[in-house]
Amino acid sequence: MPFATVGDVRLCYDDEGGGPAVVLLHGFPLGRWIWDAPRAALRDRYRVITPDLRGHGDSEVTPGPYTMDALADDVARLLDALQIERVVLGGLSMGGYVVLAFWRRFAARVRALVLCDTRAKGDDRGEKVMRQSTAQVALEQGTAAVVDGMLPKLLAPRTLAEQPDLCAAVRARLARTDPRAVAASLLGMKERDDSTPTLATITVPTLVLVGSDDQLTPPALARELQAGVPGARLEVVADAGHLAPVEQPAATSAALRDFLDRLP
Fold first, then answer.
1. In this structure, how many other beta carbons lie within 10 angstroms of the beta carbon of residue 18?
2. Residue 97 to residues 3, 115, 163: CA-CA distances in angstroms?
3. How far is CA 111 from the centre of its chain?
């Protein structure tokens, strides 16, 4: 697995296939592994790059907070290191927040967007308080204490009932995330901008993708995203929760492939 030093952080990433570049960003507190199936499905025609954001997966842990603008800058520097000018950029959950920040900062580098299981609105006061307290739990009790409360909200009821091995594997992956990175990400998300006004500025083809049973960013929020982005397309993945690429990899990969293949 390759690494690149971008600014003040060493990032790990996968880079497979050839053709137009597609960069897919994971959510919190996940890693590039959530895109394994789509990357394998798309690499015959596209160059698919899936980085671990700072502090996650195999990337370096740095002091926080990890703001969405800082993470967007990391992605831009990674593209510079790989000598890639324009990309299709997608992100799930926190990765979607980074995608919107990237659009505000580097719109000329974007060929198309994918917003997966995410939202545009910023946190309200209650959500900010919860993120602050959860960050403290992570630092004091460890990542597992945070993950145990998250897991039932991340996965669809059908996944929880019928795929115990997958649920256990997801929990194990989440629990490996460094508590410092968990806290830094939560504090960064707490302070992120409300991206609702950004949606109307998007001028590239956009796919909004959501799991039918996503509890954290449900289909109603996905429809708000679609309505806010001129000409955006909506795909609902059946029997998936917040982690559509993991829970329903074939359906998610097919939706991505269809979208990419239609781009001019």
1. 11
2. 23, 9, 29
3. 18
Q: Which residues of the chain have pLDDT under 70?
A: none
Of 203, 221, 204, nearest to 212 (Cα)? 221
Domains of the chain: 3-261 (3.40.50.1820)
pLDDT digits (tens, 9 = 90+) for 108-142: 999 999 999 999 999 999 999 999 999 999 999 99
